[in-house]
Amino acid sequence: MLMSVRRMAPLSMIFLLMIHGVSSGDWGVSYSPSHICALKDSTVIMSCTYTYPTGYEIEKVFWTKTKDKKEHEEFPDLSNDTEYSQRLQYLGDNQQNCTVKLSHVTLKDSHMYYFRFITNKPYGKWIGKLGVTLTVTDLQVESPERVTEGDSVNLRCKSSCALTDRATFIWYRNSQPLTERRDRNNELLLQSVRREDSGRYSCAVDGHTHISPAVYLNVM
After folding, report:
1. In whole angstroms, what is the distance from residue 150 CA to residue 194 CA?
2. What is the C-alpha separation between 130 and 148, in angstroms, rounded?
3. Cα(169)–Cα(182) distance, rounded to whole angstroms?
4. What does residue 85 show for φ and ψ, rounded to 5 degrees?
5. Which one of 73, 83, 137, 152 has the minimum C-beta count within 10 Å?
6. Residue 57 CB contacts under 8 Å (≥ 6 apart), including other chains
7. Hey, is 16 helix, strand or coil?
8. What is the pTM of this model?
9. How many other C-beta atoms can be found within 10 angstroms of the C-beta atom of residue 121?
10. Low-confidence ranges of the chain (pLDDT < 70)
11. φ and ψ at 65, to 5 degrees?
12. Of 45, 79, 44, 47, nearest in space to 60 by CA
């Protein structure tokens, strides 16, 4: 008789666990991609999906940029933040999709972002703590200060990170587009430069409004 009680105890414990809780594997948030490099003043889409146990209903969903809080506080909702409220648009739903759009990103927006959802049951809350890392970059032209006629010159359109979206670069001289210079290479090669090639060079990415500060190329 004693042996049968010992065998039953673990099964009872498992049954109680099934009643009072669920596996953490039933809860989750997935971000794709988890790292985004975006150009200043562009629009960013942070794609996201989430899961929760059957029988729960979603009552609130939001994005935040902190994963730490005091025990009896809630994470701050970015849609209530004046720096984000006019630029943040939730594209998801109250079922599985938690995608969000952030417009007119600035360098200050470089941060890690997290999705939070709250259900209708006590302790039925979850935050995707892996998060999405957003890095916002501007463009800078890298150029030699002085070159001599006949030299070959290589100008580079630099960013602080590799842009997530494939980019077609555009070059300008004295604010006028060099229409023949539209490609996926972030370098501008000037062969056998002449005095007429002197000027202020800047770069941009096709489809975006941000243009780099101009750099003066002096051909001697």
Report:
1. 7
2. 52
3. 6
4. -55, -35
5. 73
6. 119, 120
7. helix
8. 0.81
9. 13
10. 1-25, 179-184
11. -120, 25
12. 79
